[in-house]
Write a structure and sequence with these properties.
The complex is a heterodimer of chains A (115) and B (113). With 115 residues, chain A is an all-beta fold. Chain A is built from no helices and eleven strands. Classes of the chains: A mainly beta (115), B mainly beta (113).
C-alpha cells in the first residue's frame, strides 16, 4: 500500500527556464502533500505544504513565486521551479499520507540540475 | 516547535554486528516517531515507527525503543548486512497536532563486509 510516485527522476534544464515536477499518490487519496528540498549529505528541508483545492503553505524563506505548487486533485500535486538558476539545483522530494494520523510516504525524488 | 537531535552522524559496523542510532526530541507532547532509510539517489523509505503508547516495537532485525520520560528514541538493527548501508533519519511531529515532521540530521551507516 501507500505508494507515492514522483516524476521525473532526473531533469537538466537551462537557466531561465521552468521545470515541473509531479507527485502522485498511486493507491490512496492525499488531501495533503509535502515538498522537501535536500542538499548533498543534508537532512530534508520542508519547503511547503500542499493542500488539495487551496493555496499551498510555504515555509519561511521559500519564495512562493519561485516555487509554484498546485494540488489540483486528491492524487496529484505539482511543483514548478520558475526561471530556474544554478543555485536551484538540488534534490526535490514529495511526500503524502492517506489519513491524518497515518505514516508519511515519500516519492523517490527528482534530481534537478540547472546549467 | 519540535527540535530533533540525532547521533551519531556516521556509524561503521562489521557485518553481523548491531547498530544503534539515537534521537532526542524536545516537545513532550510528541506522540509519533518514525524512522526512515534513504539509499543514494532515492527518497526516504519508512522502515519502522512507534507511537507513544508503547515502549518498544520490533520488525525482524529492526527495533525501535522509546523513553518518553527522557524524550529519546532509538533504532536498533541487529545482524547487520551490507544492504543495510544507507542514511537513516529519525523524525517527530513538528508541533502539537501537526501533520508535518521534523527530521534529524541523519546517520550514515556503513556495514563493512
Amino acid at each position: 500500500g501507500a505508494v507515492v510516485s514522483q516524476h521525473p527522476s532526473r531533469v537538466i534544464c537551462k537557466s531561465g527556464t521552468s521545470v515541473k515536477i509531479e507527485c502522485r499518490s498511486l493507491d490512496f487519496q492525499a488531501t495533503t502533500m509535502f515538498w522537501y528540498r535536500q542538499f548533498p549529505k543534508k537532512s530534508l528541508m520542508l519547503m511547503a505544504t500542499s493542500n488539495e483545492g487551496s493555496k499551498a503553505t510555504y515555509e519561511q524563506g521559500v519564495e512562493k513565486d519561485k516555487f509554484l505548487i498546485n494540488h489540483a486533485s486528491l492524487t496529484l500535486s505539482t511543483l514548478t521551479v520558475t526561471s530556474a538558476h544554478p543555485e536551484d539545483s538540488s534534490f526535490y522530494i514529495c511526500s503524502a499520507r492517506d489519513r491524518d494520523l497515518s505514516p508519511l510516504h515519500f516519492g523517490n525524488g527528482t534530481r534537478l540540475t540547472v546549467t | 516547535g519540535e527540535n530533533v537531535e540525532q547521533h551519531p552522524s556516521t556509524l561503521s559496523v562489521q557485518e553481523g554486528d548491531s547498530a544503534v542510532i539515537k534521537c532526542t526530541y524536545s516537545d513532550s507532547a510528541s506522540n509519533y516517531f518514525p524512522w526512515y532509510k534513504q539509499e543514494l539517489g532515492k527518497g526516504p523509505q519508512l522502515i519502522i515507527d512507534i507511537r507513544s503508547n508503547v515502549g518498544e516495537k520490533k520488525d525482524q532485525r529492526i527495533a525501535v525503543t522509546l523513553n518518553k520520560t527522557a524524550k529519546h528514541f532509538s533504532l536498533h538493527i541487529t545482524e547487520t548486512q551490507p544492504e543495510d548501508s544507507a542514511v537513516y533519519f529519525c523524525a517527530a511531529p513538528t508541533g502539537a497536532g501537526s501533520y508535518q515532521l521534523t527530521f534529524g540530521k541523519g546517520t550514515k551507516l556503513s556495514v563493512i563486509p
